[in-house]
Amino acid sequence: MRNEQKFKHIKGDIYEVKGKEARIFMFFDPARNTWFLIDGFLKKRQTFPNGLLERIETMRAEFIQHRAQADPEESG
């Protein structure tokens, strides 16, 4: 995406899409050429809710691990 105010790199493979009051977090899976939406929240302040980034990173890691176990040829 080109609008860096609405689409922002957060950390590692994790990105954020901003709406007027919502934030949606995702990561890109190059093996499937697919974006996966993994979490979000309604924005009430400028900071992330406590533990959100850690939860998102854990969910992404679990997805990658599950994918590798389910289809070893696609992991990477």
List the SSEs and their pairings.
Layout: E1 7-11, E2 14-18, E3 22-29, E4 34-42, H1 52-70
Antiparallel strand pairs: 1-2, 2-3, 3-4
* Distance, first to last CA: 24 Å
Largest sheet: 4 strands, antiparallel
Structural class: alpha+beta
Oligomer: single chain
Secondary structure tally: strands: 4
Order of helices and strands: EEEEH
Summarize model confidence as the mean pLDDT.
Answer: 82
Relative strand content: 35-45%
Q: Report Rg.
A: 14 Å
In total, how many domains does the architecture comprise?
A: 1
Estimate the global geometry from the Cα principal axes: globular
Strand order within the widest beta sheet: 1-2-3-4
Which percent bin holds the helix content? 25-40%
Total number of helical segments?
1
Note down, in words, how this protein is organized.
With 76 residues, this protein is an alpha+beta fold. The protein has one domain (7-70). 25% of the residues lie in helices and 36% in strands. The protein has one helix and four strands; from the N terminus they run E-E-E-E-H. The protein has a four-stranded antiparallel sheet, covered by helices on one side. The protein starts with 6 loop residues before the first strand and ends in a 6-residue tail after the last helix.
Provide a quick synopsis of the model.
The protein is α+β, with helices and mostly antiparallel strands. Helices cover 25% and strands 36% of the residues.
Features:
1 helix, alpha+beta, 36% strand, 76 residues, four-stranded antiparallel sheet
